[in-house]
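Why does residue order matter? Because the sequence determines the fold. Keep that principle in mind as you read this record.
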Amino acid sequence: MDSIQKIRNEMEKLQELVYFDENHFLREKVENLSKLETIIQNVEEIGKVASKNDDVQFIYFGSLGNLYRIKEEPEKAIFYLEQAIDIALRVSDNNKYVTTLIRLGEAKKYNNELEEALTYFEKALTVCNEENLISLIDFAYQHKGKCLLELDRLEESIISLTEALKIRVKKGDKALTKSTKDAIQLAYKMLKEKTFPYSSI
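Structure:
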């Protein structure tokens, strides 16, 4: 089994651990930290013996960036994702570039750099539109919308998330569609509470 497949196998284990925290803007978190740490250790071990070609290194840095963000160590996440974005730019791969822009935006968000995070999501959207990256544009809208949610720019958040939802409904991916609907529902809930703070009285 090659290194890329080994890393992907480890990242599949992550999907069983992750949940979206309804009390923290639907951020990705894990309940079992020790299992997450085991995945990180496994990916790091694979990386030590892996070939140093660009594809392997991109998967390696991108995966570690995601893992450390979810572990809530965003500075480490940013360190790895900046190396991934360097590879994407060097090989002129727009899919890799947009994927990493979104991941880096999320890491910046977890590092409480919300305004800067938003610029990464907007850049990802720009590249998607310029290069017609249909497979990634819904992710750019989704992450932009969730960032706007945390910035309390709720109407803008709903607009961005609704764009993501339209695309995801067409894709027919139920899990992605549900995550977008959940984010829209949270945005409307926050908007209602902001507009009618005493509605429960």
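The first helix runs from residue 3 to 15.
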